[in-house]
Write a structure and sequence with these properties.
45% helix, alpha/beta, 556 residues, eight-stranded mixed β-sheet, two-stranded antiparallel sheet, 11% strand, 14 strands
Amino acid sequence: MSEAQAEPGLSTGKRGGMPPILASAGVAAWLVLIDNVSFWRTFIGAQDGALLSKIALALSVALVLIAVLTTACRLIATPRAGVAVFALLLIVSAGVAHYLDRWGVLFDKGLIRNIVETDVREARELLSWPAFIDVALRGLLPAALLWWVGIRRSSAPNALLQTGGVALCAATLGASVIFLFYGDLATTFRNHRELRFQLVPTNYFNAVYGFLKGTDTKPRSLAAVGSDARRTRIDAPRPRVLVLVVDETARASNFSLGGYQRETNLALKGKEIVYFSNVSSCGTDTATSLPCMFSDLGMSRFSLDAGHARENLLDVLVRAGVTVTWLDNNSGCKGVCARVRTEQMPTSGDPKLCMDGSCQDEILVPALDQLLANVRDDSTIVLHKMGSHGPSYFRRYPAPGRFQPTCDTNRVQTCTREQLVNTYDNSIDYTSRVVAMVLDAARARAAELDIAVLYVSDHGESLGENNIYLHGLPRLLAPPEQTAIPMMAWLSAGASRSLPLRPQCLAAVSGKAFSHDNLFHTVLGYHAIDTSAYRPDLDIFSIARSIPGCEGNQDR
């Protein structure tokens, strides 16, 4: 069959089909030039010198990328499978490009993990008509055109000859560009590592491969952590209770307790809390930070594979005889609470709190009240909040919110800076009110329980700084808005005496650098659990007791 003839049984369009090499080059050029706006914005912005030299370098790199992608595409440019693969490639790449361009997200295996683990509610909040229109124009339209025109059938020798020729051109072009612009290219890619997470389609190919590779290595059994754990206060007169509030997407820079110019923490005034002003997160997404903050490994040794292979803080608490309950108003605990009592908050109920399949965090307070009323033993109760999860920040608090005007859409990039910040600040203001309710519930039980409240966020959030929105950037590339998080603590008089620790001593260390690494050891220290897994140098309460004047049992 000649190259001009169509494959039997396949309609190749009104023109008899496009030559395979032309189809391959067209798809490659479309991907490089149309779906890589973010890549070229970063690349060109990284260059110094005259505009003409910037354009020359960018065009040279574009030609190399087109040649390389054309080589890869020519290998699969067949009338049936080739058209289908090209159409899928164009559509998926358009979707990836939309979120790169609009929200500044970077595609790595962590983002793929978050996509896989998200629920319907979170996924729905990421969709919008502009997204559909963008994908239709950049993906569906060229895919439909290619499907209509079709690709001619080519003989195997001709396919190999064309592939080899294009590969040779790509190698020659690549070598020439490297020779002419090596210094500029080396500096650019060394100083802007985000470029490899922006280049479509290789970014999501690598991300999916990395994710799938990681899932294949998960162990079948868990390594024990703190197998020697035991409480050293078995005969204490009253139960020691910790309410651990794990927030979502709260960034420290918008907490007035930490110096933010707006009163976003007004509800916490007079609540006798200690605010920690220099705390960093383990990761920039929930799927990483949540398992990491409950792990004994610490940020430097933690990986999801290693974390999944081991027991976590909650397992150690249970082994030592502490009752653990996880109350969830989020999309799950990412495996952390798999072996403890867990209660998922309802997704409907009070119309003032619940809408579109989710409820605001106030719904956690009655559940906490009920648990505290029935506490008989040392206990840890984890409240996993929805917090300030984006992009629909306006859904995270009761309307209308203290700060106006607001951004009442999930298309946050279309709002003004003032609207977006107002809406996010309203979510922080509501978080303060919910935490105040939790503190009131704990204070109401202080006569019968030695009780404390510890609050910490899982990671921060970008609100358009440097054209970056949301969170989830690789930690080495993440801005401080995504890693600097709020943390605060409150101790009842009974908890202060039994630890022993005066709040003044805790306040004295509140400006020190802490991180999620401290949580594991601080909670073990609070419950007076003796185990080889415990490190007092990472226990915030122990650190506070060690400063001059705070040693020993001191009254409040």
